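User: Sequence recovery, please. Input:
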């Protein structure tokens, strides 16, 4: 039986929420997750690229990947770890579903597999169960131990997977999803899956929720038509409405966080605290303790131009504007800008 292109192990958690879910949106979070996965695979494989890939991560991403790598290595206890392993499982109806599991190993006759998630907890067990079934079918095991590693919260979801039971559950799940899917976005179900769906902007089901609010905003967008979203004029109206909705959603999130921090529980949510960005307060002491000379140390640093302007202004008794001009005059050839960010701003 031919497998639909939209059916993959990694899509199962989202397809359970909305049978019309299609693909992943290339958001900054998704790209950050891809970078973290690549770095984790390099660390576990002891690849020559691991240092370069780890250096490209954000501080939070670096800590999360380091934690995940250390955990997987401690579980493996020296056993060979296979990373980014291609897996295929065959359902009773002959349908073959393929995907890539982050890592797996066999220790003392026990099959272990784990998958790394950069964000917070979500029910991703169907995805890992699919990987486990594929590995058990290929390697001849009847049970496997699966772990989902959540980098942001350092949470580990461990569970056992039995071949026969998991295969039956997955078969029923895929059948239910297939029966509910009509390749018609209008039949979509607004849910958490919308965050990752590549068609969220043109989904009539998701737009229907927003339109209830948009009709009260004077932006000229009275109805929603996915085809018209290709027209610049319609996109402009939708963008104006989205700006208002963004402000409301931001206010709701801030209000909810404030209540939670004051001790009021928010059903279904919990406070999650990320470590602050680390800074070195004494460069001389750091150089001495690390055995680096100042040039070697400074070669690892990025200078904040704004803070540099403040320092120059205080040193020379100048205003910030004069200090910035002085910096441009003296070291413009030494300043390198990163890639520009792109955004849309309302025309004046």
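Assistant: Recovered sequence (348 residues):
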């Amino acid at each position: 039986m031919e497998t639909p292109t939209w059916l993959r192990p990694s899509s199962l958690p989202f397809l359970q929420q909305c049978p019309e879910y299609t693909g992943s949106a290339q958001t900054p979070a998704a790209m950050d997750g891809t970078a973290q996965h690549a770095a984790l695979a390099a660390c576990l494989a002891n690849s020559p690229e691991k240092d370069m890939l780890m250096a490209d991560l954000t501080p939070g991403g670096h800590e999360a990947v380091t934690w995940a790598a250390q955990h997987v290595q401690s579980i493996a206890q020296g056993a060979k770890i296979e990373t980014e392993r291609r897996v295929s499982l065959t359902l009773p109806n002959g349908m073959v579903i393929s995907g890539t599991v982050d890592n797996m190993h066999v220790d003392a006759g026990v099959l272990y597999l784990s998958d790394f998630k950069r964000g917070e907890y979500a029910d991703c067990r169907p995805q890992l169960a699919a990987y486990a079934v594929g590995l058990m079918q290929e390697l001849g095991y009847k049970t496997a131990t699966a772990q989902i590693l959540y980098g942001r919260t350092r949470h580990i979801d461990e569970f056992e997977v039995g071949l026969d039971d998991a295969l039956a559950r997955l078969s029923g799940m895929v059948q239910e999803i297939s029966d509910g899917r009509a390749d018609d976005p209008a039949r979509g179900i607004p849910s958490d899956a919308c965050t990752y769906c590549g068609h969220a902007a043109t989904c009539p089901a998701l737009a229907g929720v927003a339109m209830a609010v948009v009709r009260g905003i004077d932006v000229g967008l009275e109805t929603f038509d996915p085809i018209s979203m290709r027209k610049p004029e319609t996109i402009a109206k939708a963008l104006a409405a989205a700006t208002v909705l963004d402000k409301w959603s931001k206010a709701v999130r801030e209000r909810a966080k404030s209540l939670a921090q004051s001790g009021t529980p928010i059903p279904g949510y919990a406070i999650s605290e990320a470590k602050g960005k680390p800074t070195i307060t004494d460069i001389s002491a750091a150089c001495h303790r690390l055995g680096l000379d100042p040039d070697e140390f400074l070669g690892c640093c990025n200078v904040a131009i704004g803070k540099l302007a403040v320092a120059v202004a205080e040193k020379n008794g100048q205003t910030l504007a004069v200090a910035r001009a002085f910096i441009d005059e003296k070291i413009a050839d030494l300043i390198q800008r990163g890639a520009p960010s792109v955004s849309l701003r309302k025309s004046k």
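The domain at 9-183 is CATH 3.90.320.10 (Lambda Exonuclease; Chain A).
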